[in-house]
Amino acid sequence: MSPLGFALLAVHLVATEPSPAGLGTADGYEDVLVRWGLDQRGRVSDPAPEGKRLAAVEVASEDVVAETDPYPSLLNLLHARTREHVIRREVLLEVGAGYSSALALETARNLRRLGIFAVVRVQPVLGPTPDTVSLLVVTKDLWSLRLNQDLQLVGPLVQALRLQATEQNFLGLNKKVALDFLLRRDSVTLGQSYVDPRLLGSRWSLTESAALIFARSGQAEGSKGSVLVSRPLFSLSTPWSLQAQAVWRVQPVRVFRGADVWQLPYPEGGTVPYVYDAEEWSGSSLYLRSWGARFKLDAGGGLGAYHRRYAAPRDSGLDEARRDWLRDTLLPRSENATYALAYARLWDTRYEVMRDVDSYALSEDYQVGHYLTASARYAPPLLASASTFAEVALTARYRLRLGDALTTLSTAASVRRWLGGEARGPWTNRRWAAEVQQVSPKVLGGRFVARALVDLNRDDLNERVLLLGGGNGLRGAPPEAYSGKRLLLVNLEYRTRPLVLYTVHLGGVLFYDAGSAFDEAPTLVHSVGLGLRLLFPQFNTFPFRLDFGYVLNGARPPVSGRLSFSGGQVTEFRPSFLDAPL
Fold it and tell me: How far is CA 24 from CA 10, 432, 498, 537, in A?
């Protein structure tokens, strides 16, 4: 939602009468809608439904703007409410079979994952006879015709601005069409995307995107895109999945520190701009089989190939010595490979539903127990120019809920061994990362949330450089002020109970950050501050955040530069390596 949208909503809220009782509390928003659904269908909740024969499935789907919402109902004319058959086809329980609370909860999770609903609640209700039960699915759409915005702002510096004109639920059929605009410090990207999770009504899904990249001067300088066709593991009882994808990216890459391209100190004097051309093409397929009930094992394999080339721009004006130094010192490794992939995942199928963790009022699903993955990739010498190697990666996560507290431990590791050519024998790409996150029980209505993250690597072929500062974890510091190939980050927040005004949820945050991007030994920079969180549950499932930080022992930008604004919580800034190390 854009700042103009915020302003228009605020004007309307000021002029609107207060909403009915029940919507003024953070934990009442979904409950009010459940009561509405029961009244709408004239149903009464069944307190003991387990095992009873399922007599019927009913759907109560509320408009984006309900009578209890403070916004004009005319907005509903611009939104196609989700078709009932779209909701029904996700229900995993079968009429005539015994009622299963586990399948009911899985149905609710699957519906929430679609991303088109603000609220999903699955409620067992009394059936026509004492030995039967019916299922009531209560949903409330998210506003789908929107100008999505992702703004990364540190003081007056706009690091990135993404505007996406989207119909997220086209004609109420759960198909997404979008036009994208992405403004970065050096480029403008124009593109489109389409997502159909039920291709031709089947269990197959299609996701595609394509974009053109322009320099800020208007000159075309690259493109990127992807196509993914898959049949996912859509339920815990699905026996197999298959996916195939192709991805490309051809563009110049400019690494910034603050508002300017990073000028690298050249050993023989002068500087070299951190700019290079990237050319990436890849294709892969993966087939998985799934076994188990409470504890699942998903395992399988696939094939893939990629081409990666990185070099200083031809028009950079650098001499050969500087071009070679940049390539050998800081650019990712150029290579071609064809490979076979093996993958296995072992996980606990239990989930917990919580509220007021990363969002307000809305249900948040968390898988608990263990979640382990192992992957291995072997690249044989099929082509003369291809790399020959074997690499393995492991991830492990354990999440525990005790009362209203949530503890998450995550780690990942990977390593590559060369099997041919001049590099035969050495181990490379040795990387390890770990994260600990603790969500406290409610304290004075709010929660403490603590996160510690470490990311280490040795012999990194991609010469990855991490930048820290600004809104990406060390708030209050100048943007990208600290650099290194390793990272240590600690965040501690107290997130207050939200103030609910006409269903708008406004919360406060007090925080402490400590972090270091380093090569050898960390030197922690500390900051403290406060912030605001704002959630419009009819339009988004995540809050917007505005933070003001003060650095205690490092460089301090001007006062305006200590502000940062973006969507989501700061704990969402984490290495993707923790989930997908290969």
Answer: 17, 45, 10, 13
**Of all helices (H) and strands (E), which one includes residue 432?**
strand 427-439
pLDDT at site 423: 61
Q: Which two tokens stand for residue 271?
A: 């500087």
Alpha helices, DSSP H only, in 127-213?
Answer: none
Kindly report, residue by residue over 129-176, the tens digit of the pLDDT.
Answer: 999 999 999 999 888 877 777 777 777 778 888 888 888 889 899 999
Tell me the β-bridge partners of 339.
304
Half-sphere exposure of 5 (CA within 13 A, CB side): 11
List the one residue out of 362, 501, 507, 504 whose CA is nearest residue 5: 504
Q: Give the amino acid at 498.
A: P
Query: What Rg value do the Cα atoms of the chain yield, rounded?
Result: 26
Separation between Cα atoms, residue 357 and residue 363, nearest integer Å: 10
Q: How far apart are CA 185 and CA 173, in angstroms?
A: 37
Alpha helices in 44-197 (DSSP H): 84-88, 101-113
Q: Which two tokens stand for residue 104?
A: 């009911």
Give the count of alpha carbons within 13 A of 303, CB side only. 2
CB atoms within 10 A of CB 46: 19
pLDDT under 70 in the chain at which residues? 1-28, 384-385, 421-425
Q: What is the DSSP string of 323-367?
A: HHHHHHHTSPPPEEEEEEEEEEEEEE--EEEE-SSSSSSS-EEEE
Q: In the prediction, which pLDDT does 509 show?
A: 96
| Number of residues in the chain | 582
225 within 8 A of 209, measured Cβ to Cβ = yes
Token pair listed for 513: 């950050």
Give residue 65's Cα distance to chain centre: 26
Q: Which residues, at least 6 apart from 4, have a Cβ–Cβ distance to it below 8 Å?
A: none
172's torsion region: left (phi>0), alpha (psi -120 to 50) or beta? left
> Quick one: tokens of 348?
């606990």
216 Cβ contact partners less than 8 Å away, ≥ 6 residues apart: 186, 187, 188
Report the 10 Å Cβ neighbour count for 62: 21
* Helix, strand, coil % in the chain, rounded to nearest 5: 15, 50, 35
Contact criterion met (CB below 8 Å) for 79 and 72: no
Alpha carbons 406 and 246: distance in angstroms, whole number:
37
